[in-house]
Amino acid sequence: MSQPDMQQTTFKDLDLLAEVSELLKLSDLEKVLNHVLQLAAKSVGAEQIRFYPNEAHWLTWTNLLVDTGRLLDVPFGIVNTVKPNSLLAWVLDNKLGDIIMDADKDKRWVESTAGIRSILCVPFIYEDDVIAVITLTHSQPEHFNDYHLSLITIIANQASIALHNVHSFNRIQAQQRQLQVILQAMTDVMFVLNENGKLILLNDAAVKILGLSKINDARGMTVLNLVDIDGMFEPVAPLIAEEFGSQSDWSFETRSERLQRDYQVRMSTWHDTQQTVAGYLIVMHDITTLRDLHRFKDEMLRVASHDLRSPLALITGYADMIKLDAPEDDEDIHEYVDIIKKSAERMDSLLEEMLRVERIRNTPLELHEQIDLEQTVKIVIINLRPLIEAKQHRFRADIRLKDIPRIKADPVLIRQSMENLITNAVKYTPEKGRVEVEAWYAEDKFQFKVSDSGVGISAEHLPYIFESFYRVKQTVTTEKGTGLGLSLVNNVIERHHGELWVKSQLGRGSTFGFWLPLN
After folding, report:
1. C-alpha distances out from residue 153 to 97, 160, 205, 491, Å
2. Residue 346 φ/ψ, nearest 5 degrees
3. pLDDT per residue as tens digits for the range 183-200
4. 254: β partners
5. How far apart are CA 155 and CA 17, in angstroms?
């Protein structure tokens, strides 16, 4: 080859490489594929192009190839199957390109040889996976050579990267659009902040509570800007400004006086690939209706505690006066007065139970006193022994609490909880029945259990018996409760970070118990 011819070839190679590099700049999948096929056919003078798409991988080819084929300057075909012992099968197996110099003499060309003598076949490979294969043909034998094979291999390698990049770009865009749709459909308020507390993402609900007209108005805002807009964001600022060790999520309630709304806030950290904190996700759920109901309930309890107590006291007082004035031999009047007194006393007891439950729920729990659990259990049993003996129950106490560590707890509430469970066992167990109390500790937990041979509770009631005012209708006993005793115990145990449990079978008795952490 003469010097001018060599220079011309070199310039053509440089032009080809320049065109190949342009593939990496394209972001449209159809344009990339069209450009690749045009470039491949042009660079080696191919007369026909056949393309095998491997649909096992990440590209969806069907519609894309049909549209691309219409735009090419050379005949284009799609290969859907791989025939055994064919050139295409060899390329797929070996992940290498190859040439058939003459289709009439090479058994690997299993297609029709009409108008085809020379074939060049090269795979598109990304991360060692064949994503497609391109086959170029010519009507003259020995048209393609090793130089052509190298050129098409370079094009195929660059094309594989370009196709993957475009596919990844399109997938990310699709995911972003999907995320945006999800965010805008959320009724909860959502903010995403970076590690410095700068706002980088929010939804329409968040825009609305900030009083902005569109999302772009919030771009670049910081958590301090949010605090300036509404004081309900004040609890967020210190969580971002300080180090909290391994803690990665927080839950709290806040109120917007500006909007007169209450929110339950869940705040979590999100991390980058190095597992360092990259920012914060804040989700706010509107609980105004729930809080309004709580405020209404508190107001009703206030009314109950103040406005109902006085009439009940008057009813009881006048009932006593009527009983004193009534003739001793008039049994009907005495019976009616006793019914009035018992009803008034029952209502007063119910009010007291309601107020006790609310006090436990809403009063800060002071756990500064170190209590002796062994002594507490013994005092409870001594106090309730007359009640047990009055019904002639077979009573057994198994207390294994020697050397138990003292714990920080409210001694009055813990004692009341034990008494409540034992009292219930006595109340719902017929005379001469069995009541057993067991207390022990193991695995850093204090355990307390009360078993009886009483009426029991059917399985459908068990999930609800710790709820306030839930009462099981009993046909085998006249004992009636307020439906608040077990709710009170449950609240006490939960506030001490323990757990209340029950096992029962209708007609065969019940076992109630709880555990408290010793640490």
Report:
1. 7, 10, 53, 73
2. -65, -40
3. 777 788 988 888 888 988
4. 263
5. 8
Residue appearing with tokens 């085998």: 476
Residue indicated by tokens 């759920």: 285
Both tokens assigned to 366: 């002071």
Tens digits of per-residue pLDDT, 49-87? 988 888 766 566 666 666 666 667 788 888 888 899 999
CB distance 215 to 207 below 8 Å: yes
Residue 131's CB: how many other CB atoms inside 10 A?
Answer: 23
Q: How far apart are the first and last CA of the chain?
A: 90
Chain segment 245-300, per-residue pLDDT in tens: 456 788 899 999 999 999 999 998 887 777 777 788 899 999 998 888 877 777 77
- Measured between alpha carbons, how far is 173 from 166 in angstroms, rounded to an integer? 10
| Separation between Cα atoms, residue 209 and residue 359, nearest integer Å | 34
C-alpha–C-alpha distance, residues 517 and 498, integer Å:
6
**What is the H or E stretch that residue 118 is in?**
strand 118-126
Q: Structure pTM?
A: 0.46
CA-nearest of 201, 196, 194, 205 to 219 is 201
Residue for token pair 């058939």: 100
Give the Cα separation of 357 and 488 in Å (integer).
5
